[in-house]
Design a protein that fits this description.
Layout lengths: L57 E7 L11 E3 L6 E14 L4 E5 L2 H8 L1 H4 L1 H5 L3 E8 L12 H18 L3 E5 L17 H12 L4 E6 L8 E2 L2 E2 L6 E4 L4 E2 L12 E2 L1 E4 L5 H14 L3 E5 L7 H12 L3 E3 L1
Helix pairs in contact: 4-5, 6-7
Length: 318
């Protein structure tokens, strides 16, 4: 069995109100293990200023917006002027539980709210550079998560909240991360075989041209097909959730170009490991290279170790 170190990081406090109810609460990512499935690829066609091409991987970046500026994603270019990152992900919004209505509710904390309500400042400038911007969704220790919806109707109701947020804030899609749900809290159900399939099925119907991605982690990673329908037939991408390692997500139906076996924590994975994982990504023919924890400081030298392996280009900071 492979062993690894977990990053036990603190959860940000949830407070205030957003959308029609409350703000979301976000938490730090946990570097642990998991596994997912297949989908329609919403590509970055026409984004000629991006590093990714028909043969080169896309570099994806999660940003902890509680402490870091999302705009940093757009500050890194290759020596040839193309953007390093193809996708930037706002980490993170939450699934809260309404004990009165017995429903899952989408929440933002104040930092996520600032980014979303300030889309003209934080989101549109990245999109103008050809970078797709997704919103990551994860639990909030209240018992509600992507893996315990009891009916298709309940999953669809939450999918409608997600789709509405994507439309309202001009986002390019949704990323699912099955962490911190604490299933069973507040009398909620445990993970089941159909919940995640129901959810991505409903969301794909609501957002046929948007990106849906899955961070290969948690109970949902083991519940990827139900009644002949696979999660992989609904999502665009899936990537490894264990930073500093190389592990191909088990997502039947997704091609290599839609999978990311390499994952790094920019502030904790060594440059040599990051470069090695990038080399493996290229040699393996995979289409995604996942990064997390982009800081506000200039880390172009570190990122050059990655971009030289992925694209044969050094990274410059603009």
């Amino acid at each position: 069995m492979r062993t690894f170190n977990k990053l036990f990081l603190t959860k940000a406090a949830s407070f205030g109100m957003v959308l029609t109810l409350l703000f979301f609460s976000a938490c730090k990512k946990d570097a642990s293990n998991a596994s997912p499935q297949t989908a329609p690829a919403s590509s970055l066609k026409g984004q000629s200023n991006l590093a990714a091409s028909a043969t080169a991987p896309q570099t994806v970046c999660y940003v902890e917006v509680n402490t870091e500026n999302l705009l940093n994603v757009g500050n890194y270019q290759l020596a040839n002027g193309k953007q390093l990152f193809s996708i930037g992900i706002i980490f993170a919004a939450n699934i809260n539980y309404d004990t009165t209505a017995d429903t899952a509710q989408l929440y933002f904390n104040s930092q996520v709210t600032t980014v979303l309500s300030g889309a003209a400042t934080y989101i549109k400038p990245l999109q103008a550079k050809g970078i797709k911007v997704l919103l990551s969704i994860l639990g909030n220790h209240e018992g509600a998560g992507i893996c315990n919806f009891q009916t298709q109707a309940a999953a669809t109701a939450f999918a409608k909240q997600l789709s509405a947020a994507v439309t309202k804030y001009g986002l390019d899609g949704i990323d699912f991360d099955d962490e911190y749900a604490d299933y069973g809290t507040n009398g909620t159900g445990q993970p089941n075989a159909y919940s995640f399939v129901y959810l991505v099925t409903a969301l794909r119907q609501l957002m046929p041209t948007k990106i849906i991605s899955f961070y290969d982690y948690g109970p949902a990673a083991s519940e990827l097909s139900y009644n002949g329908v696979t999660v992989g037939s609904k999502v665009n991408y899936s990537w490894n959730a264990i930073y500093g390692t190389y592990s191909v997500p088990n997502v039947p139906g997704l091609s290599k170009s839609n999978l990311g076996p390499a994952a790094i924590d920019i502030q904790n994975t060594s440059a040599s490991t990051a470069a090695s994982l990038a080399t493996q990504t290229v040699s393996g023919g995979y289409g995604i290279y996942l990064t997390y924890n982009l800081p506000n400081t200039d880390v172009h030298t570190y990122l050059s170790s990655v971009s030289k392996a992925l694209y044969g280009q050094a990274t410059v900071y603009k």
